[in-house]
Task: inverse folding
């Protein structure tokens, strides 16, 4: 069996599962945010099912529209808060300790290898970076899991990615995943689990791995997973002393496909509008002027990302006519960036620095684009209208490429500054 | 079940296009319906009539997990989406809401805007009454039919039903 099949089998009291089988699995962690959870709560309340199967397996943080962007989002956050209080949910990260859900969950030690994690958000696949089965669901699924602690799944087939080669300086895990999606397409892994292996992945930090699993859904996948290793254990042990079990794919595990990629010659990649699969190597890009540079999100808003960008921006200025917005993904990242002097670097370079929020990543607020404007962004989606006006454009890239482009005012190879 | 089709031949229509994030600060179907498909087809809300179907190409509903996409479509009176294929979470959300999402390979090229279709659910056949054609679709799994009959996943769970012995 694959690692994914083993985790699912262990959560449905079966010795074995096979791709295509329908199972009902135990859910270890349910992550709740301010957009998809309030509707789930309403569904339960309307049906007289307002119950929480185990408050300690639920983790709640408002993130998409907080601090509240308008009255309607304030109402959503309030409905979430009332529910948390009503059921005595202790793992609640109120504004001031909050963060983007997929960044805060691993950061605070809620994700363990070998567990099952769901959230009413498509980028839940992020948590697979710790060797967990993690998948995004809708509000109804969320409600069902909150109520019963279980959820139906079709066991997915897996695609194994074997990544070899040393990354050149200025090339990051974001470039690897943009390259993979460019290669297999936005439905290249539809309904499947993407298993990321190989020496390159093993050499990445746990945070850098999260950038890769985060974007599994951009290839249509149900989940993305990196088998847990010593780095994972170290990461998790620094955050919690709870027990966990580590699973590995068998030697003879069956895969729908095995894709080998050598990244030795990989360049920084930029995904052009309006699909994450429109990747272009940076050396082949002609001059593209930008209006905004956005550093943040559950893809690339962690401390390592901020460090990379700050290194490039240190002692330099954002180009005239460009707005650079920095959004640390969580409160802890924000504070650490402060302590390390990164916020000062950003501020001196002329960036605006925000409190943690999903903000402009999904076109919520804090950096919405006007008609015809262009943004280079460390986020994960560049669909039509994703960050604002339907006639605006989003180019996806690594934090380094975002920072370098902000300095030049055009999409720029970060290696010029390293 | 009969209805007229609105056909979208473009692939990868995503949930941001079905219901843009700027309207996600509510979960009210009526309010959501006012903006359904706005970023891909601003006039859609004026043309759509209760009981209509949407016919689409590959990977319909990709992107965000927002169930609001289903609610916006249902709020606008759409009775079913028939597509070459669906994105995973959209398809899942449809089943869980008891909303018909039918996978029918190649349908987007066979049906024209305004065609009248009839869905024979149990037979797995779509009849195109305007063209006198018939298309076979991927049968809806038994458990999904049960969820639909219960009126959605939560009602199904409330009734104490299980999907499998696992
Ligand atoms: S940061 Fe962006 S992609 Fe991540 S959860 Fe928030 S809106 Fe979604």
Result:
């Amino acid at each position: 069996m694959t690692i994914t099949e083993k985790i699912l089998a262990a959560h449905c009291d079966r010795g074995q599962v096979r791709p295509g089988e329908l199972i009902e699995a135990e859910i270890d962690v349910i992550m709740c945010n301010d957009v998809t959870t309030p509707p789930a709560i309403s569904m339960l309340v309307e049906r007289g099912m307002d119950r929480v199967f185990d408050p300690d397996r639920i983790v709640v943080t408002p993130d998409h529209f907080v601090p509240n962007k308008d009255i309607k989002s304030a109402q959503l956050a309030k409905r979430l808060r009332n529910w948390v209080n009503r059921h005595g949910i202790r793992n609640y990260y109120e504004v001031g300790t909050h963060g983007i859900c997929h960044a805060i969950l691993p950061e605070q030690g809620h994700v363990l290898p070998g567990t099952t994690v769901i959230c009413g958000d498509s980028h839940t696949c992020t948590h697979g970076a710790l060797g967990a089965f993690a998948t995004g669901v809708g509000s109804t699924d969320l409600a069902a899991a909150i109520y019963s602690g279980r959820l139906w799944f079709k066991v997915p087939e897996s695609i194994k990615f074997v990544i070899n080669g040393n990354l050149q300086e200025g090339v990051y895990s974001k470039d690897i995943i943009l390259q993979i999606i460019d290669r297999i397409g936005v439905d290249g892994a539809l309904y499947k689990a993407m298993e990321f292996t190989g020496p390159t992945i093993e050499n990445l930090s746990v945070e850098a791995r999260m950038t890769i699993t985060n974007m599994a859904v951009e290839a249509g996948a149900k989940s993305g997973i990196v088998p847990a290793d010593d780095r994972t254990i170290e990461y998790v042990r620094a955050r919690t002393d709870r027990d966990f079990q580590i699973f590995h794919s068998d030697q003879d595990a069956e895969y729908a496909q095995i894709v080998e990629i050598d990244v030795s010659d990989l360049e920084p990649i930029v995904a052009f509008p309006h699909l994450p699969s429109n990747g272009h190597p940076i050396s082949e890009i002609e001059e593209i002027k930008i209006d905004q540079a956005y550093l943040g999100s559950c893809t690339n808003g962690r401390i390592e990302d901020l460090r990379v960008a700050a290194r490039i921006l240190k002692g330099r200025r954002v180009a005239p006519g460009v707005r650079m917005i920095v959004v640390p993904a969580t409160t802890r990242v924000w504070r650490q960036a402060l302590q390390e002097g990164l916020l000062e670097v950003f501020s001196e370079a002329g960036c605006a620095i925000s409190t943690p929020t999903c903000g402009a990543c999904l076109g919520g607020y804090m950096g919405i684009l006007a008609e015809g404007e262009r943004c280079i962004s460390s986020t994960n989606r560049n669909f039509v209208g994703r960050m604002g006006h339907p006639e605006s454009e989003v180019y996806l890239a690594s934090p380094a490429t975002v920072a370098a482009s902000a300095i030049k005012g055009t999409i720029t190879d970060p290696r010029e500054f390293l | 079940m009969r209805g007229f089709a609105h056909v979208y031949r473009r692939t990868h229509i995503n949930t941001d296009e079905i219901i843009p994030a700027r309207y996600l600060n509510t979960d009210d179907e009526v309010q959501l319906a006012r903006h359904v498909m706005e970023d891909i087809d601003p006039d859609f809300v004026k043309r759509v009539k209760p009981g209509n179907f949407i016919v689409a190409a590959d990977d319909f509903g990709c992107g965000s997990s927002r169930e609001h996409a289903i609610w916006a479509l249902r709020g606008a009176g759409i009775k079913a989406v028939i597509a070459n294929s669906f994105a995973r979470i959209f398809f899942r959300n449809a089943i869980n809401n008891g909303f018909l999402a039918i996978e029918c390979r190649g349908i987007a090229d066979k049906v024209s805007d305004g065609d009248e279709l009839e869905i024979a659910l149990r037979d797995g056949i779509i009849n195109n009454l305007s063209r006198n054609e018939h298309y076979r679709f991927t049968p809806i799994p038994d458990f999904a039919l049960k969820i639909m009959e219960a009126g959605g996943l939560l009602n199904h769970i409330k009734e104490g039903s299980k999907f499998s012995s696992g």
About this structure: Chain B touches chain A through 43 residues (CB under 8 Å). The CA atoms of residues 145 and 159 of chain B lie 15 Å apart. Chain B has a mean pLDDT of 92. The pocket of iron/sulfur cluster is lined by residues A 64, 100, 102, 121, 123, 297-298, 358, 361-362, 379-380 (CB under 6 Å).
